[in-house]
Amino acid sequence: MPTEKIAELDALYEQIVSERSTLAELASKHSTCPSAQNGGVIGWIGKGQTVAPFEDTVFSTPIGSVARYVFPNHHTSASAIAHTRPAKGRLLP
Q1: Residue 86 within any structural domain of the chain
Q2: Strand ranges (DSSP E) for 23-92?
Q3: pTM of the full predicted structure?
Q4: 93 within some domain
Q5: Is 92 inside any structural domain?
Q6: What is the pLDDT of residues 46-56, one digit of tens each?
Q7: Cβ(66)–Cβ(79) under 8 Å?
Q8: By the 8 A CB rule, do 76 and 8 touch?
Q9: How many structural domains compose the chain?
Q10: pLDDT tens across 17-70, in order?
């Protein structure tokens, strides 16, 4: 992972947790994910719907907290966990 990418993520993460900017503001400006046009909101996800590093981080982050993580494929991300709900249907192993 290029050091500059991690430094950029750290700077953005610090802006969010210090409440100088919101995740929505920063996602709209900096994200390359399709969710950027929606302020970074990806909606509800369940286990087995995304890549394991993302799920491991998101599902272990408390509601109201912000997660910061680096993927092995040179992708970085920050996510705010707003709500949870009971799983619907059968969970995938």
Answers
A1: no
A2: 66-70, 76-80
A3: 0.70
A4: no
A5: no
A6: 888 888 888 88
A7: yes
A8: yes
A9: 1
A10: 899 999 889 888 888 888 888 888 888 888 888 888 888 888 888 888 888 876
